[in-house]
Amino acid sequence: MLLLAAATAHSQFRELAVTDDGGQLYFVSGLSLKSEPQPRGGIYRIVEGRIETFVVNPPLGSLRPQSYWNPHVSGGGEVVTYARMISCVGGSSCYLAGYPRTYSLVCVQGKCMEEALGGQAQVSRNGRYVVHVGGWQVTGFPPTAFRHLRDLDTGESTEIPFRPSHLRQALTSDGHVLGIGGTGLMLWSRQQLRTLPVAEVPENALINDQATWVLYETRPPAERRLRSFDLSSGRDILLARGAEASFQPSISNDGQLVLYVAPPAPGQPPQVFLLRPDGADRRQLTA
Q: What is the pLDDT of residue 258?
């Protein structure tokens, strides 16, 4: 896995996306493979222990340079989505058309769909649904925003009444989408819209694939809290608290394990913790 540095050491690998069995790992990097003619960066993947190029950024010098990022992969690896951003350099004509713009490409079984979806996208773990959100500003006109759920089995596209709460875990395999509305959380499907009576005002939230638990972060004036919400019983549970940066939480597909990052004590380096969503069996993984 020999790479040539094309950027600073900070954030060399980001936006990780992995299949359920860990057999495929997608990531964004400013680095490049030695086999590439010039450093560009882009999206790479690791399959069966070998690293390979998925899509690299085009060469510099274009009036409308492009870059690729935000990869997502379904649990079985059959569906991959990623974002393409087209920027504008020099002159004003392209800004009149609303640049820069972001689109998402959807690839099924290695073949990308001809129609690109507007904005950023994420795919459900079973590969059936894609939610994509974005917008653009054309000079002289009001800004346009969109939020849609696409059913890849039927091709049907449905507008969502709010922005998804998380770019990684806001969509479930049965088509539920989690969002933040006002001071609370909402869970939407094409059949219903449900308001979740959470205990505190959420700043960010995510949901497990089977739609049984929600994790959400708060940022009160004094400290940040990580809480869980049981969708079946309505229990709202405090999992962690602290005054420092985000907990960066994630939750397993079945909702049985929660992972987060936090200092074990004031003034100590952040560490990784694992526990159950009801707060039980907490253990520190790193030191």
A: 98
Nearest of 235, 287, 229 to residue 255 by alpha carbon: 229
**Cβ neighbours of residue 105 under 8 Å, at least 6 residues apart?**
81, 82, 83, 84, 112, 113, 116, 117
pLDDT of 1 reads 37
In which residue are the tokens 């690791």 written? Answer: 46
**CB atoms inside a 10 Å sphere around CB 128:** 17
Whether 287 contacts 279, CB under 8 Å: no
Residue 64 has what pLDDT? 65
pTM of the model: 0.87
**Which of 276, 282, 225, 286 has the alpha carbon at shortest distance from 251?**
276
Contact 54, 42 (CB under 8 A): yes
Gap between the Cα atoms of 24 and 12, Å rounded: 19
| Ramachandran quadrant class, 11 (left: phi over 0; alpha: psi -120 to 50; beta: rest) | left
CA–CA distance, 89 with 237 (Å, rounded to integer): 49
In the three-class reduction of DSSP (H, G, I as helix; E, B as strand; rest coil), residue 96 is classed as helix
Terminal alpha carbon distance of the chain: 27
Which long-range contacts (C-beta less than 8 Å, at least 24 apart) are formed by 213-216? 213/251, 213/255, 213/277, 214/178, 214/185, 214/187, 215/239, 215/249, 215/251, 215/258, 215/277, 216/165, 216/185
Q: Which of 168, 148, 158 lies closest to 215, judged by CA? A: 168
3-class DSSP string for 143-191: CEEEEEEEECCCCCEEECCCCECCCCCCECCCCCEEEEECCEEEEECCC
Instruction: Tokens for 175, please give them.
Output: 């088509």
Peptide bond into 142 cis (omega under 30): no
| Of 79-93, 124-138, 229-243, minimum mean pLDDT range | 79-93
